[in-house]
Amino acid sequence: MKKILAVLICALLVVASMGALAEGQRVGVSMPTKDLQRWNQDGDNMKSELEAAGYVVDLQYASNDVQTQLSQVENMISEGAEVLVIAAIEGSSLGEALAMAKDEGIPVIAYDRLLMDSDGVSYYATFDNYMVGTVQGTFIKDTMDLDNAEGPFNLEITAGDPGDNNARYFYQGAMDVLNPYIEAGKLVVKSGQTAFEDVATPTWATEVAQTRAENILSSFYADGSNVDVWLCSNDSTAMGVANALAANYNGNYPIVTGQDCDRENVKNMIAGKQSMSVFKDTRTLAAQVVKMVGQILNGETVDVNDTETYNNNVITVPSFLCEPVFADVNNYKELLIDSGYYTEDELK
Ligand code: BGC
Description:
Elements: H1 2-23, E1 26-31, H2 37-52, E2 56-61, H3 66-78, E3 83-86, H4 95-103, E4 108-111, E5 123-127, H5 129-143, E6 153-158, H6 165-183, E7 187-188, H7 196-199, H8 206-220, E8 229-232, H9 235-248, E9 255-256, H10 263-270, E10 277-279, H11 282-297, E11 319-322, E12 325-327, H12 332-337
Parallel strand pairs: 1-2, 1-3, 3-4, 4-5, 5-11, 6-7, 6-8, 8-9
Antiparallel strand pairs: 10-12
């Protein structure tokens, strides 16, 4: 009996190791930076899920430096990656690496941010970026009751990185909701800065958003007038605006929007310094991408749900869009703690 058991266990181990060998294909995962919480989570989630599925994962972070990312991706290719997953620092700066991948027949999945100006990108997985902006704009519209309240209200706008294709979608989604009220004079932008180029934040840096917000506050609100709402495209920029408000402003605290549910921003929501965020569960996106990688490597049809929206100036990239979710102080426990995204302690 013992012998039979031992033989059975041995056989099982051999089969298991053969399976692992068969699946042990290399997947290169290139992330923009470790500076922002979300990319660490995206990278970690993807690595552990891909490894659990039996792949060998080459995960690299590029310190928000375009050249570093380019050479990291080139190294992944020369080290035998069979699929690449790339969240670009600057959507249009990886052309050489993408051409190399295409030449070698390596499929590339653009992760969260579209890879621009190249036909070397096979799929795109992201959250519905325009919807993120819509959620922010609609929150402002509803909270201020813009259809009924008399106003006028003062609005300022802080958007994202011009090098990130997502940034314009976030901005446009929100502005399409708010523009009618700006045109009607119900929302007034005292700084006069409304065009994307004027409100953008290179590299999404908190410090850059903070400096611009401080300038706006001292130039346009030092007379004691209130800024009623500050549309911020994401949490890192919302943090900059919250810091500027803390340093430089004595009026009524404005509505401040965000995106990502970064830990420090959720703390700010709880403390009343940020009004909402948009939850993009990185576990969902990572799981979707792991599924796509498997489908690609097994020669199966790859799941997509949008084949029209994301043109990168060369091709329209088949995309899978996950749904972003509104988050505020009333639902964060259910969304973030009950789902195991954060522990209660992490938000203290
Ligand atoms: C992502 C956002 C993030 C921003 C800054 C965007 O591409 O979609 O979730 O806040 O980059 O890292």
